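Retro notes - structure team

What went well: the batch runner handled both jobs without manual restarts.
What didn't: labels got mixed up in the shared folder, which is why I'm recording both outputs here explicitly, each with its sequence directly above its tokens.

Job 1
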Amino acid sequence: MTQRILTLAGDGVGPEIMAEAEKVLAALAADHGLALETRQGLIGGAAIDATGVPLPEETLAAAREADAVLLSAIGGPKWENIERHLRPERGLLAIRAGLQAFANLRPAMIYPELVASSSLRPELVSGLDIMIVRELTGGIYFGEPRGIEVRGGARTGFNTMVYSETEIARIGRVAFEVAGKRQGRLVSVDKANVMEVSELWRGVMTDLAAEYPDVELSHMYVDNAAMQLVREPKQFDVIVTGNLFGDILSDLASMLSGSIGMLPSASLNEAGRGLYEPVHGSAPDIAGENKVNPLAMILSLAMMLRYSLDRAALADRIETAVRRVLADGLRTADIHTPDTRQVSTSDMGDAVVAALRD
């Protein structure tokens, strides 16, 4: 059966890293008989320039029809001063909501060859393998009311953090299932000591634990979780948290790996269809220079094959190929050290394809 993929190259370095992921996908299709139908779409700044909006209806319709969406990166200083509802980031929020992609899976792991690149001591990160499960379509990013208005003669900004027990239970079940397939340890992160929405969050997670007796549930306040991720990161297996806290903690955890350019993510809906993207941004300062690290994009492709296209064996092949090129000493500028060989974006993509075929 032909599987449909929508690719969204986006802005900045996005087209460069998408090109490398497409190389890998083409090699897999040619060598393993994958029946794929690939379509390209616009999102973010590129969509604003072409259509005036960050998420054209055509793109959203194509995303809903696809079996999976592969997105690179969006945004940049060019669009920082336009109206807020038209900025590139609104397109990303809108496509997540439009796909009902509520569960964001963000691994934070380190390859043995990159331990020295981490900002933490090797003994703290060697063997690190964390999965952060972030609720993606609720919370303060989507809550109403929101806005900026004049109160008492002064401009006042306000946002609303809101979660229903249904939303909490939905993401909680995803996290318990993920933990059950790993080490069986789940930490739920909240701020229940000062926020009613977190008090509800903690209560729902505690109730859910009875359905998953093989998973050990614990709770942690978000400020302590941030500290513990730096102090002793390997104590964690799976972390589940809301949209705002997950946004912050997953970026923090990404730097434990040596480079944010190494980490993929998956955003899934209840049907298992999803949006796959690297966790890094569009890096407009190096766009067009053929120096950005494409490995997070390529590893996002691997997650797509595993979670939405039911091709786990091919996902394993990609991940093995990435390990192979790192073991061979190839590095892009962000992870280059004196004892390794620095290569370009396109060279790294070519090396992964060669390792796949070796």
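Job 2
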Amino acid sequence: MGKVFDRYGRVSAIDHKYTGEEPTWDKCESWPIDKFMNERSRMFNFYNYYCSAKDLFNDLLKWMPTNGYTKQQIKAIKSEGECCVSITCLKLARAMNNGMAPTRKDVMEYVKTKHGLAYDEPHNDLLYLKKNIDSVIRSNNVKIQAEIKLNAEVSNVKEIIISPLQRLSNKVNAKIIAHLEAMIDDNNWANDSVKVEGINLIQLLKANDIPVKGLKEVHTWLEHIGNSLQCALDKDNEFDVEGWAFTTKVGIKNRLKAIQTMLAQVEKYRGANTKARKPRKKKVKSADAQVKAMKYKVSDDDFGLSSIAPSSIPGSTKLIAFNTKYRRLIVYEASSKDGFSVKGTTLQNFNESNSYELTIRKPDDILPVVTKKTEKQIFKVVDALKTNRKPPNGRINKETILLRIF
């Protein structure tokens, strides 16, 4: 899916036309309760679509110190990793970091108006999150005490090795089953809605590199829910009938259809990945490593210019540079959405047809626009220049000021 977060730390909602932007919670305490609960539900769906547990784990670590947890307790959670709590907890932590109220006094009034919802008491996301974290911390303390006791009794303790099969099972539960459970708990599946949607499992399995051996647990989980729905539809099991009583017969059929579709996706993924082994991904150098040998001009007093940090170039899609010796403005556009890369002192992956350089006759008029205006304003001015253009070679030298990236 590309980068999960943009440079400002917000979720990069590339499909915002369908999902909306990341929920914001300004003055949410005074919202109508329907708006608050609907936005809370959309929040779960939004993070479920764009983020994995690994993406949201730092939000949990950021949330803990503001809610009374010590450095030692935060260290305990960090040592357990993102799988120590459910992905629902991680979503709530990010939402509360962004200003979401953990509860509302009028939740119970809202519940009474919704057929199929039956809370014993108002939900409190703060208490729910603390309960889960405290459970992990207690387990961690017990584990530490057990290790201390074992080390005291045995001088040479062998490290417990997790088998590859168990490691795969942990990954499937964290990356796939957790999303399916969130679908059941957080989406329209949990209320009286007739129409529901499943998860695109092919996309999710592919994004998390789940091998064919890991599909058994996913298949078993889907079959269990499918059997429960079928029993409710056929009225073969009183517990299943009661469990799905909040929706209509048509609603049960639609949920069963969604499960069958996801089962078919699992089998399709199995068929596509059984024979062909996915090639190993080429390791990408960090931005700092790429620009380590780059030669560029840090600043120029004659033109009053300073270069941006070269480490911001890898991954960006547009670069504007200026050769102070020949007064050449150079515009690079990346050849793909992955952006530029740098090798030595040469820019890589730029589109030769859309990139160009031209001589600036009046730098005092043009350069302030390039350094201070928006992208649209910059190119409106540059496109109006009638100076001859030629394709650039991609080399950055000691006379080149790095002006802007987009």
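One thing worth noting from job 2: The beta strands are 299-300, 305-306, 318-323, 328-333, 341-343, 346-348, 356-359, 400-405.
We'll revisit the folder naming next retro.
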